[in-house]
Amino acid sequence: MKQDRFLTGILIGIGTLILLALVLFFTRQDKKEYLVEKSPYAATYNYVLAVTKEDYKTAYTYLADKDNKPTYDQFRQSFFSGNVSTNNVGVNVGASEVNGDDAFVELTLVYSSSDPFSGGYNNTDRAQLVKQNGEWKLIYMPYNFWAYDWYQEPIKP
Fold first, then answer.
1. Model confidence over 106-154: pLDDT tens digits?
2. Which of 127, 157, 139, 132 is nearest to 67 (CA)?
3. Which residues are within 8 A (CB) of 111 and not within 5 positions of it... i.e. 6 or more apart?
4. In CATH, which of 3.40.50.170, 3.40.50.10610, 3.10.450.50, 3.40.395.10 is domain 34-145?
């Protein structure tokens, strides 16, 4: 009889812990918000956030108006076709370096592992921005967030 109560107590304790873990998981979801400041860091952060939220209209507003800028449809199609894919990568936006109307923002790309027995890996890269009409706009991002043919002159046969 004592063993049954002891076992019941253990099961109730485990159930309580599971319920608490589920409540914490669903109530503490990380709700990321767009930054309102006008800095290279904020522009890069907002672009990455928009892309990961699949908010392509907002992400497109962070692209610089330069020669050979992709149209919105080309931009969006790059994500739908898999030419640009953020599925297996996270990014940490780091410090920015401003030089007049040009800026660089350090990025750490965190790639997930493809199997359960190895860890992921990190890669550092930089985003490049220019100041246009008082706002910072992107002209380059690493591969997982940028297609190779954006801002490139089309190949003529």
1. 998 888 777 777 777 888 889 999 999 999 999 999 888 888 888 888 7
2. 139
3. 88, 89, 120, 121, 122, 123
4. 3.10.450.50
